[in-house]
């Protein structure tokens, strides 16, 4: 698979790639740290995708090495926006640490993490 149709963005310690092919669901891969330094820009990117591609977004979080409260807030805000437009944000392949954070905060029920990685 080439990089055609994929756009890369860097937000501090977080690097994302967005699959811009003509699929129905926006697919984002996040690698690095989703924290106070990167969460605002990441949230803006997710909002842009929801506005341009539709309300369903899959975020592959398998590459996240760290996620703080601001990172979780960015995901929740994006999910709120997606739900207002009839969709949802789905988290794919969370690492055990991320799964634990989701479970401890009760967000595991909200995001219902997908088990399979994004293409």
Automatic annotation (TrEMBL):
It holds the Pfam family STAS_2. Gene3D superfamilies: STAS domain. CDD domains: STAS_anti-anti-sigma_factors. Residues 28-119 form the STAS domain. InterPro entries: Anti-sigma_ant, MlaB-like_STAS, STAS_dom, STAS_dom_sf. Transmembrane segments: none annotated. GO terms for molecular function: anti-sigma factor antagonist activity. Belongs to the anti-sigma-factor antagonist family. This is Anti-sigma factor antagonist. It comes from Actinomadura coerulea.
